[in-house]
Every structure is written in C-alpha cells, then in structure tokens.
Design a protein that fits this description.
The structure holds two protein chains of two kinds.
Chain A (H helix, E strand, L loop, with lengths): L10 E2 L6 E2 L3 H4 L13 E2 L16 E10 L5 E2 L6 E7 L5 E5 L6 H10 L5 H9 L10 H9 L3 H6 L1
Antiparallel strand pairs in A: 1-2, 3-4, 4-5, 4-6, 6-7
Chain B lengths: L2 H10 L5 E9 L2 E6 L2 E7 L1 H7 L5 E2 L2 E2 L12 E6 L5 E6 L5 E5 L9 E8 L3 E7 L7 H14 L5 E4 L13 H13 L3 E3 L8 H8 L3 E5 L6 H8 L24 E5 L5 E4 L45 H7 L5 H11 L1
Parallel strand pairs in B: 3-7, 5-9, 10-11, 10-13, 11-12, 13-15
Antiparallel strand pairs in B: 1-2, 1-6, 1-14, 2-3, 4-5, 6-7, 8-9, 14-15
Helix pairs in contact in B: 3-8
Classes of the chains: A alpha+beta, B alpha/beta.
Chain lengths: ~160, ~325
C-alpha cells in the first residue's frame, strides 16, 4: 500500500528558519507537520492530514493545547495524548496536531501559558470546531503528559 | 519542340503524387487511404531528414530530432509504385497536433516530441472509473495539452458498471471530481462497454468528427471502439489481476472510420504523458478556470501562483472557485 504521507521530507521552518528533519527516528511521528523548535506550522492540508490540497499556505501559529479524546475525538475527557492547536495567521482556521517526540517542551509550556487567557471569539471558534482548549486548571495534566510526572505531586509527595 | 522531345520532357517531370490520409502507423510503414483505397507506404529519406533537421535545443528538449515525421491523421502526398505500395513524399500543413514528451530513459536525459495524432476535431481522454483507478493528474495533462493545441476535449469515463451504487448513482467522491470538470466546461460522458450504457450519447458527440482516444493502458479504449462500432473486432484484454494495470494490448495507432460518420483514432495506452514544449510560466493559461485570473495577482505576470502573497489564483482556490485538485495538478506540472 502506498504511504499516505508522501510529502514528508526535511524542510526549513518558514518562521524560525531552522532546518527540520522529518526522520521518524527523531520525531517519533510519520507526519512531521510543525517545527519542533518554534512549533509553527503551515496551512497546507485541506480535507485530511497529508493531502496538501490547501492553497492558503500561510503560517499557522501554536495557540493552545488540547487533549485527544478516545475514539479520535477532541474534548475534555483527559485520556488521550496532548495535542497542539494551530491557527492560520491568514484565514484563521484551526487545526490540531500531534506533538512530536523532539518538540521543545519549554516552547509547549510557553504556548500553554500564553493560552491561559483566550479571547471570547477564539473560544467560540474552538467550540465550533469541537476543540476544548486546556486552561490553567489543567496544568498538572500538561506537565504529566510532557514529562511523565507532575512537579506539584513530586514536591508534596 | 518536336514530339520526341515533348515525350522526353514529360518522362523527366516528377510525379505530382496523390493526396491521402495516414490511417495507420507501424514502425517504418504508414497505411494511407486515398479515394477509398488503402496503400501501404514508406517514407522518402529526404522527408525524414527534413523533419529531423537541426532544430535548436530548448531546456533539455531537442526540438524536431528523433521525432517521427508523420502521425495518424496527417494529410500526405504520395506516389504509387508498380508493386502496389507507395512512397510518401510530402506532408501537408497540419491543422493541429496532439503531442507529448517522450519518457526520459534516465534523469537528465533529453526528451523528444512524440506526435500522437494530427488534424483532430476532438481529444477524448479515456479513464476507467475503477480498475485501473483514475489518474486525475494525467487527465489534467491531457486537457492542458489539448488546450495548448487548440483542440476541444471531452472526458470519457468507462467501466461505469463497476462503480454504480445500488440506487444507480455514482460514488460521491467520483461524482464530485467529475462535476468539477463539468463546471469548468469540459463535457463528461460516462459509458460502459459491457452494458452499453452511454454509448448512444457518445456516438452523437463523435459523429462527423475526427477524434482520438487517449489514456492509460487497460482503461478500455479498444473495448469502447468495439462497442461504438460492433464488428470492428479489436483485440482487448482484461487488466492484470495482481497489479491492476493494463497489458498494453493495443500496439499501433490506427484511425477507424465510423459507420455513423467521422473517425476515431485508437492509440496504445501510455504510462505517462509528459507536456511537450509548454513553458511553465504560461501553464496557467491552459487551465480555463485560471485563465481569467492570470495577470491579476499582486506580482502580475511574474506570479508563479505558488507561495506569493496576493496571488489571485490561490485566493480563488481558497474561496472554492477553483478545484484544489486542479490547482495541485497545476503545481505538479510546473515542477
């Protein structure tokens, strides 16, 4: 069977200009879709991941975090893996992407911190797309997903 | 002038030759039809040499060299010889040609023009609805080539019986892709050579025209011709059960006269269809839906419609006025 992600190759980030390898040995994912350093992405997929049918091609910035629900839906059920929420800087559309193994954890925490006070319009857009944005109350979950342990729990324990 | 000298001068005058149309082409031999008679002809060395002579090299493509000087549909002047055959001595100017770039044997190798057919009224890209799966990018290449040559095109979808749902409708994905082409203005005919569905409609379109059937091996071009004109008896074959690809059953190009008027050129299936001599900067002009927007981008005619800001074509794709699949085909062709 032909591989779905035929466009997966090394690239230079359009935002921070770092060279990014698409080697699965580093990323742990077969569809590298954002820069592991600045977490920016490009708006190139339209109907499904990897189809490269979108003509927008604008930069997508990381705007928050969410959790993957079981049965591949996105929402509050805190069972699934941590996901990055990207928003297109040109058309404003939202997408959700898996975090790769070599993504900068500090940058992810910074995105989480920035998303603590979202605008009502942004929250409405997230709700329309069925995305539950993680808020400061979910900090322990985020740390647990990123590092495998929780600072607070370790300190108190 | 004496009678004897008149006789001598007439003996030395070249034979003006008869006019005919090339209806079949095999290696080194051409079947020419003139006044209802078929004559097997060869080519004069001068004609072959003249056609291949010294054209410039253009972006890795050698124009004129190694190309067959004649194609099916060409109008030619030929002289008959006593053995029953003939020699083609000249080719009349062509109204249009459908040509592709020959496949490069290795990366960086020169490619050459391969004329598939000449003097056409209609190009019919034939695609199977299933087995083998339709290659939409290849269809776009046919359509672009037809646009560049100024020949109208009509899309023909075969093996309709394989994809019809229980309620008689097409699969939604397939229907959406075909609707996009109809929206652009390309007629789409859906047929089944097995059940005969759509054949009367296709006959009506082909009647009185010289058309060429082009497409991948195994899509059913010869089967379609057999259905259009029963009794033609063209050799057909099922696709390979393992690979799902055609077996290249048809090996020669031939023009068949149709009882209901006109003619159809059957061609061997091709694996790839390279664009011949179409500058990348002009490519958008051969997409009818993009043509009105060319020159309206922020960078005007310098826009490649890829990542430039303010590109009118990209905006039209995002707005849904241009099919994203067609836009991707355009980008692939530019590569």
């Amino acid at each position: 069977m032909k591989h779905k992600y035929t466009h997966n190759k090394d690239f230079q980030c359009k935002h921070c200009h770092y060279l990014v390898t698409a080697d699965t040995q580093y990323s742990g994912v077969i569809n590298r879709n954002h820069c592991p350093y600045c977490l920016h992405s490009l708006h190139v997929d339209l109907y499904e991941a990897g189809d490269r049918l979108n003509a927008c091609k604008a930069k997508m910035q990381p705007v928050g975090l969410t959790l993957k629900k079981l049965n591949k839906k996105y929402g509050k059920d805190q069972h699934g893996e941590l996901m990055l929420v990207h928003q297109c800087t040109e058309c404003g559309s939202l997408s959700i992407n898996r975090i790769a193994a070599d993504d900068d954890a500090e940058a992810i925490l910074a995105v989480f911190a920035r998303s603590s006070n979202p605008s009502p319009e942004f929250l409405t857009a997230c709700e329309q797309d069925g995305i539950h944005l993680l808020n400061p109350e979910d900090a322990r979950v985020v740390r647990a997903r990123l590092f495998g342990w929780d600072d607070d729990a370790t300190a108190s324990g | 002038m004496s009678n004897l000298s008149k006789q001598n001068s007439s003996l030395h005058q070249p034979d003006p030759g008869a006019q005919g149309i090339v209806v079949k082409k095999t290696t080194g031999f051409y079947t020419v039809v003139s006044n209802g008679q078929e004559i097997l002809c060869t080519l004069t060395a001068q004609l072959r040499k003249r056609q291949a002579g010294g054209d410039p090299v253009c972006k890795g493509k050698r124009l004129g060299e190694h190309t067959d000087p004649l194609a099916v549909g060409d109008e030619v002047i030929f002289t008959s010889h006593l053995a029953g055959g003939g020699v083609i001595i000249d080719r009349l100017p062509r109204r249009n040609v459908l040509a592709r770039s020959t496949p490069a044997p290795m990366p960086g190798a020169y490619t050459f023009e391969q004329v598939i057919a000449a003097n056409l009224d209609l190009v019919v890209p034939v695609f199977a609805a299933a087995s083998p799966e339709p290659k939409w990018n290849m269809l776009d290449r046919y359509l672009v080539t037809a646009e560049a040559a100024g020949i109208p095109a009509m899309i023909c979808l075969t093996k309709l019986d394989l994809v019809l749902q229980a309620d008689g409708s097409l699969q939604p994905d397939l229907a959406a892709r075909l609707a996009a082409y109809q929206q652009i203005g390309y007629p789409v005919v859906m047929v089944s050579a097995c059940t005969g569905a759509g054949i009367p409609g296709l006959k009506a379109v082909l009647s009185g025209k010289i058309s060429v059937l082009v497409g991948k091996s195994g899509v059913g071009k010869s089967s379609l011709l057999n259905a259009l004109q029963p009794g033609l008896g063209l050799r057909t074959n099922a696709v390979n059960q393992v690979t799902g690809k055609g077996k290249h059953t048809t090996t020669v190009q031939e023009l068949y006269r149709l009882d209901f008027g006109g003619g159809v050129i059957d061609t061997p299936g091709v694996r790839e269809f390279g664009l011949w001599n179409l500058p990348a900067d002009d490519l958008a002009l051969y997409f009818p839906e993009m043509r009105p927007l060319v020159g309206t981008c922020r960078f005007g005619l310098d826009c490649t419609h890829d990542e430039e800001p303010g590109c009118a074509i990209r905006k039209a794709v995002v707005a849904g006025r241009i099919s994203p699949h067609r836009y991707q085909s355009y980008l692939h062709m530019r590569e």
